[in-house]
Amino acid sequence: MAHSDVFDDLEAEQQQLETVLAGLGPDDWTTPSAAAGWTIADVLLHLAQTEEAVTATVGEHGDPVRWHELGATVDEAMGALVEAERGDGPRILDRWRAARREAVAALRSADPDQAVRWVATPLKPRTLATTRLAEHWAHALDITVPLGVDYPDTARLRHVAWLGLSTLPYAFRLAGLPPAPVRAGLTAPDGTSWQLGDPAAETVISGPAGDFCRVGAQRLAPADTTLRATGPHAATALRLLRNYAVS
Question: Which of 112, 170, 175, 223 shows the greatest Cβ crowding within 10 Å of its Cβ?
């Protein structure tokens, strides 16, 4: 996993997004986002709702969201939550600001060895923080790309890349396939090299870290990247790569 502290990096990722959001005008909030069916305000509402869920589940207070009761799939449940609470962009921004700070504080203070309930599986606080960083980064793209706002890649993508690679075994199992060892040799945004995974793995994915993370976030198709995959499970690994929130 990344060498830097994931809680600090989660806060930094959120702050980068907050800087963008603070400059939005009234018309920006109602602009269609890159998330199908959602406006810019809807995307931020989703982030606020899920940050509130983090605080609830870590603190075991209130009523943590019962995702399975809201839809047949997680995406349906998330859509139902947004549909129920759509509102004014600036008010949603205030809600997210409070929610994201409370969630990070809850994660920092939680027992690092005690897994907490989450959508698909219990996660330890650091892993949950990693998934939240990946979620904020991906949805930041959904917000900034349609608005034509620059949102540069940073070294924080190492957390996202780690998540995508470490959950590949889960992705293989979901596809009904036996897990296969895969490693990644990625070029970081600053031009340095990131080597992730089992050094002995014969299947290797290489190329820009930003492309790797966008494929995992389903924001870019493998064919539209400069990623290269070699080895016995190369094509399958690229096809199944996702930034899943699983341990």
Answer: 170
User: CA angle, 150 as apex, 147 and 153 as ends, to 5°?
Assistant: 130
- Rounded distance, CA 15 to CA 210, Å? 19
**What is the C-alpha separation between 90 and 52, in angstroms, rounded?**
18
pLDDT digits (tens, 9 = 90+) for 72-118: 777 888 889 999 999 999 999 999 999 999 999 999 999 999 999 88
Nearest CA-CA partner of 82 in 26, 37, 27: 37
203-208 vs 228-230, strand pairing mode: antiparallel
Structure tokens at 164: 């995508």
Cα gap 211→220, rounded to integer Å:
7
- The DSSP secondary-structure symbol of 116 reads B
- SS3 of residue 205 by DSSP: strand
Residue 69 is inside which H or E element, if any?
Answer: none
Output the CA torsion sign for 184, 4, 107, 29: negative
Q: What is the mean pLDDT of the chain?
A: 93
Domains of the chain, first to last: 6-118 (1.20.120.450), 157-240 (3.30.1050)
Nearest residue to 210 (alpha-carbon basis) of 163, 162, 245, 161? 161
Rounded to 5°, angle at Cα 112 from 95 and 5 = 70
List pLDDT tens digits, range 189-240.
Answer: 999 999 999 999 999 999 999 999 999 999 999 999 999 999 999 999 999 9
In eight-state DSSP terms, residue 193 is E
Describe the crossing of helices 74-85 and 40-59 by its angle, rounded to 10 degrees. 110
Contact 179, 214 (CB under 8 A): no
